[in-house]
Amino acid sequence: MWRDGDTVKADGGDNSQPVSNRPQTARETSSKRLPKAERREQLLDTAQEIVRDEGTDALTLGYLAERAGVSKPIAYQHFETRSGLLIALARQIDDRQAAVLQDELRQARKRLDDVARVASTAYMHCYTTVGPQWQAITAALKGDEQMDAVQQELLDRYATIYCEALTPYSELPRSELYLRCVAIIGAAEAMARDMFRGRVDEATAAELLTSLIVRWLSGGGRSLR
Prior knowledge:
two-stranded antiparallel ribbon
């Protein structure tokens, strides 16, 4: 057997290189022992590739293990069921998009119209980039009570992100501002679905959502109390 550092000679011996320096194949990289959290991320990244390239019908725990270069028990240890895998994938997609949104909001100019534009643009761009995958996942889990609860949790998170970002520009009570943000997210979801169907383009959808936010939080946003 070759020891670490031994050389593998090509025909003629001209291109020898140490085994330890040989580039690893994707399967070799996948099959390396990884910390549990890193393995989970690797499996979810592979699952997202499958959904993007082949659709949710192709995504099974067995096929995921094959594509990721691991044994089936490893995939089952992480997700237990196909539904569990799809829900975990939905969370990963949303976590990454929420992180992008929060980062862009931190960098936005400290004016209501700028914050509203950044929030709206990021939301619509999210649908453009991962919307098809998200729609496929939710369709595959239609009627699943756990997924319904997760979707509500994720919508609540976006309402909270919007509320925190918009608080400095509103004189509304916090509770009322939060409810308006819930309504804004509802409008954003409806507009994003129309964008997904080709009824409105991304730039127009973002601009409409921006104007709605500004209207509701500026002079036209009188308290209901």
